[in-house]
Amino acid sequence: MNNVRIFETLSDIESIQKIIGGEVALFEILIRRNNAFLYKTGRSYGYSHDDTQDLMQDTFINAYSNLPKFENRSSFKTWVIKIMLNN
């Protein structure tokens, strides 16, 4: 539990670097930080609760799969919302 608290203090880019480096469990931190935002976005586009959750799951899978391509030209939040909108 202590490790989770330490990792929660990492910035998104620090977390991403560690995830790419093999600490894949840290991706949960990025999910927790952005979950509510993605949910609100999906619902604002008129998707049902279930459809929004499915879309969020697909978005996070795509984000994880493409994490090495994240160039830090925008925030992770902006990048993940762009993935969601493309889905």
Question: Keyphrases for this structure?
Answer:
globular, Rna Polymerase Sigma Factor, Chain: A, single chain, 87 residues
Word description of this protein:
It is a single chain. The protein has one domain (2-86): RNA polymerase sigma factor, region 2, helix turn helix motif (Rna Polymerase Sigma Factor, Chain: A). The chain contains 5 helices and no strands. It has helices at 2-8, 12-20, 27-44, 49-65, 76-86. Helix 3 (27-44) crosses helix 5 (76-86) and helix 4 crosses helix 5 (76-86). The model has no long low-confidence stretch (mean pLDDT 92).
Summary of the model, kept short:
The chain is mainly alpha-helical and 87 residues long. It is 71% helix and 0% strand. The chain is built from five helices and no strands.
Biggest sheet record:
none
With helices defined by DSSP (H or I, 4 residues minimum), what is the helix count? 5
Which spans of ≥5 residues are poorly predicted at pLDDT below 50?
A: none
Assign the structural class, choosing from mainly alpha, mainly beta, alpha/beta, alpha+beta, or little secondary structure.
Answer: mainly alpha
> N-to-C SSE series?
HHHHH
Q: What secondary-structure arrangement, pairings included, does this model have?
A:
Blueprint: H1 2-8, H2 12-20, H3 27-44, H4 49-65, H5 76-86
